[in-house]
Amino acid sequence: MAHQSASDILRGTLDLLVLKTLALEAMHGWGISQRIQQMSAGALEVNQGSLYPALQRLEHQGLIRGEWQASENNRRAKYYRLTPVGRRALNEETDNWREHVRAVELVLGTA
Amino acid sequence: MTNLYGLYLKVRAVLSRRSVEQEMEEELRHHLDLETQKNMQRGLPADAARRKALVAFGSMDMNREAMRDGRGSRWFDDAGTDIRYTLRWLRRSPAFTVVAVLTLALGIGALTAIFAVVNTVLLEPLPYAESDRLAVIYGRHVEHGDGNNISYPDYESWQERVKSFSSLGIFQWESHTISGDGAAERLAGADVSSELFPILGVEPMLGRSITKEEQRQRQRVAILGYGLWQRRYAGERSILGRAIQVNGEPHTVIGVMPPRFQFPYRGEIWRPLAPEPGFERRSSRYLAGAVGRLGDGVTREQAEAELTRVSEAMAREFPEANRGWSGQYVTIREDLFGPLRQAIVVLFIAAGLVLLIVCGNLANLLLVRGAARQREIALRAAIGAGRGRLVRQFLTESFVLSFLGGAAGVLVALWGVRILRTMAGDQLPAFVEIRAQPSVYAFAFGVATVVAALTGLLPALRGTRVQSQTALKSGGRMTVGVSGSRLRGALIVSEVAIAVILLAGSMLLMKTMSALNSVDLGFEPRNLLTARYALPATTYEDRARRQVFLNSIEESLRSDPAVVSVGAAQGTPFGGWNVGMNYQVQGEALPKPGEEPSTHFQMISPSYFKAMNIPIVRGRGIEASDASGAMNSAVVNEAFARRHFAGQDPIGKHVRLGPDDPWATVVGVVADFRHFVITDAMTPALYFHHALWSPGQMTLAIRTRGNASDAIPMLQRKLAELDRDVPAFRVESMETVIARRTWVQRIARDILGAFAAVAALLAVIGLYGVISYSVAQQKHEFGIRIALGASPNGLLKRVIGQGLVLALLGIAIGWFVAFLSAKTLTELLFQVQPADLATFVIVPLVVMGMAALASSMPALKAAGTDPMLALRSD
Lengths: 111, 874
Fold this sequence. Notes:
The complex is a heterodimer of chains A (about 110) and B (about 850). Chain A is α+β, with helices and mostly antiparallel strands and about 110 residues long. Helix content of chain A is about 60%, strand content about 15%.
């Protein structure tokens, strides 16, 4: 198996991270990518382009909603915020993720 | 969970594709700008900062495509592209577009217009509840098949014994003179039993229905039709309880029926069917018919079987009156539309066949186009277009064409519907309105879809089956290939076959129509006006007054310069009046009960035969002097003389109507003429002077100098001068009357003829197209052949032969199918066999000739190929 950069984010995980990022405040796409890097202390690097299809997908699913607003440098930017449905999904997915990690841990620990 | 917002986003992606794209670009640009800015803040120069941002972003295009896919509008985006592409192509080839859209419009329009009639005549509900469960029961003599009226006692027996019907009512055709409240007018209607309206399932919108009491007690009450109420009484509700003059007698209006309701046929005034003298006689079959509603779960077949069984039992019980008599079950739709139903089905199929030819030609054109595009398709396949995607593009083309054709077809259909309505004139009840209902538009849309699939699928599947390598290599000189030309050949063969079928059908109808037109009627139908009058029983109770009226009106008309001669009979030919009468001939053994011979019977005025131009063959006609002692002299026709006095002189023989009547001397023999049904054989007839019973209702036959219809105002004026409460009705020239009797055959012939002509033309054009194309494809080969010394004549023969082989195959198949299916026309044909020899010889020859002509033009071109030009063209 070829070695990949450890910072690539698994596809399903990206959705979870985006939701988590937006749980604090509404943000535009670039802001989300910066925040994920920041929060993971630089360990996770989002392939920036693939963030946008993910945002669109979450928006179509009704988990987040995008709105055009003036940004800090006075340009029009699309800000995403979490919808109530998205907030519920975030909680569920977080639980699922922890469950998953625990299970993987168990396997790794007993091996 | 229903995610309305997500749905909104999807719809928006389809509807405002452009702004969604713009927003996407803006968002991505915003991202890159911020990232570049960040890099610059870290000290990179502007262009390096930008480059680094782009690298961090990854493939822009891939992410764009991923977003486009994510929107779920990909299908629509592609369709939009395909449609724009198709429209551009159609604009670039206007000749093709116009021809394709016009022929499609013609095909779809014709089928849709006929569908509008199918819809009104066969599908639309009649103004009666669940009309398909309604039956009209007529009488029928099992052996000679004639007579369709019934007697009251027979009706009562059926009502009591036939359990298949939940109820049975009876009616009698009546027409009445309505006077007072303006000019007198004559209206069709019926006297009905109290059961009838409940059976039809229609209640009066105002007032109430007829009661059993009113029927029994002969009460003078009437129910009005909606149209009559609106027209004559201005729709006033106060009409209820008012007395109106019906045949000069006051009748109280008890109800008004809802709009659209008419019965029977165009009838619009109803009274209780009151018993009258003779009613109780089982053998006096003069009531129009019974109407029944099938009981729950009973089928038509069960009801018919029970009706026959009960009638047979009645014949055993009452042999004198009922031997041989049975009941005849007719659905109310069959009763209303008769042979029109068959004609419409035939025309609908014919229109469908014409459309198939149109589809065949279009599919051929698209196949050729597909062949010409092989390089383009191969290229697209090579750079990654899937076959499904390519098929979709082909189909988009046929769909765009079909829907353009369908839209134009709706216009053609609207125009066709108007023509059909004019053709139908007043032949149908007023509630049968031929018009373009919403379902007609839906039908046109559906047909366009089917056409698109039919014309598009073959070229699409064939056109996209491309070997990229060969197609790209072969330098653009493309042909349909062997299997392609075989396919095109097969399409042409089917087209020719269809054209043969339609031509054969229309020729059978043309022969029928000319046979109908050339039937020797036995009288002169031109310049003959007929008009009926009915004297109100109240004011003309006295027989002498009725005779005076007839004499006066004849005299008054005779004095007009436009009139050549005037006569009167109870009914003139084809006017719907026909009475059969039993009789005895002196010297012949009395017939057994139930087997008495019957003859057509009329009371006439002395000048009737002269006005009709019917020659007296022997003896004399009825004369004025017969008025006193009208029972003493009778005139018979030749058929009557043949039946009873073959080889003898009929003059001086004696006949009588019944054992209680005196013998009448036969004083003359008139030539046979057709009276009731144009297509029936001549039947015996017996004539007496009208003074015999002095009927209050007579039909005038007026021989005019010029056009018969021009004399109508004069006739109405003269009648009004005599008595303004006696209106003329059924005022029509004899030619109109005859046209009315043959209108179904006439419109079937006209429309089928038009369809067949169009079909033949299209098939020939299609053949021409295929041969021309194949000549163009083989130009190269022809050039070589001629260069090598082939004779142009040989090429000519070869190409024509190619066309004739296709035509011959088509003719053979069409001939066979036409021969087998001609039987479906039987009900419409007259004096023509479905397997008419001339038809099945002439039609193939004509089509063959047309095919030869169509292939000779491209053949001449092939023979004239210049070898140098042909070889150089590569």
